[in-house]
Write a structure and sequence with these properties.
CATH superfamily: Aldolase class I
Mean pLDDT: 93
Largest sheet: 8 strands, mixed
Number of domains: 1
CATH architecture: Alpha-Beta Barrel
Number of helices: 7
Radius of gyration: 17 Å
Distance between the termini: 32 Å
Helix content: 25-40%
Number of strands: 8
CATH class: Alpha Beta
Low-confidence stretches: none
Shape: globular
Structural class: alpha/beta
Strand content: 15-25%
């Protein structure tokens, strides 16, 4: 279940010193995914829950939070139990998700087990299935998660990884219109554009990061539709 552990990060959990736990398995096959080794659910060096909890007990007072990412964490059958044990040690929990399991997301938030959610918005509705690598994707599930978060039950952010081959200014503007259509009474609080980074582990080859100018133009395209937007990280 636990495929890996980054022992400290200042970037993954806004405002907190955290560690990042990588869970196995994903239902998407995004061509630009750089965690391709996690997709099958067969990690090379898995970590058991007791090892993780032992590590966290030693980091009490040193770390503020735990980021749970993947893969897609909501696919893990023991996720709620894992988070309960992490919360019992006094850590805040951030969940990364693709939003495809709104029921699990709602249950975790409703139980007070998640303090911050980062949901990936893969693309505008017209290109979502292509960008997620999932032709049979039920987009209504994605929308259900989006609306739930936009209603403000838990602190959240939306984010899009930008790839030249998959995203245009108009695609990003259409994401903004989608936000507006889904929940006009609750504008998106935080939306981040982050550049694709080419690595050996990327699922598909021959993909390219956007330029700084392209990212800035995309930021300008979505700014009217969100309360706060930012370009996050390097474009290199």
């Amino acid at each position: 279940m636990i495929a890996g552990l980054q022992k400290m990060t200042l970037l993954d959990y806004p405002g907190k010193v955290a560690c990042t736990v990588f869970l196995q398995g994903c239902n998407f096959r995004c061509p630009f995914c750089h965690n391709a080794s996690l997709l099958s659910g067969k990690a090379e060096s898995p970590i058991d829950t007791e090892q993780l909890l032992t590590f966290l007990k030693k980091r009490q007072g040193l770390l503020d939070g735990v980021c749970i990412t993947g893969g897609e964490p909501t696919l893990c059958p023991n996720l709620q139990n894992l988070i309960q044990q992490i919360k019992a040690l006094g850590f805040s929990v951030k969940l990364d998700t693709n939003g495809s399991n709104p029921g699990v997301l709602k249950d975790l938030v409703g139980a007070g087990l998640v303090d911050y959610v980062a949901m990936d918005i893969k693309n505008c509705p017209q290109r979502y299935k292509e960008t997620a690598g999932y032709p049979g994707l039920d987009l209504s599930k994605i929308e259900e998660s989006m609306v739930f978060l936009m209603e403000g039950t838990v602190e959240y952010e939306f984010r899009t990884t930008v790839v030249q081959e998959y995203h245009s200014n108009e695609d990003i503007r259409q994401i903004g219109l989608w936000f507006q259509k889904l929940c006009p009474q609750h504008p998106v609080e935080k939306y981040f554009l982050q550049s694709f980074v080419d690595r050996d582990s990327v699922l598909s080859g021959d993909l390219h990061a956007p330029t700084e100018a392209q990212l800035q133009a995309m930021k300008n395209a979505i700014t009217p539709y969100v309360r706060y937007t930012e370009i996050r990280g390097s474009h290199a």
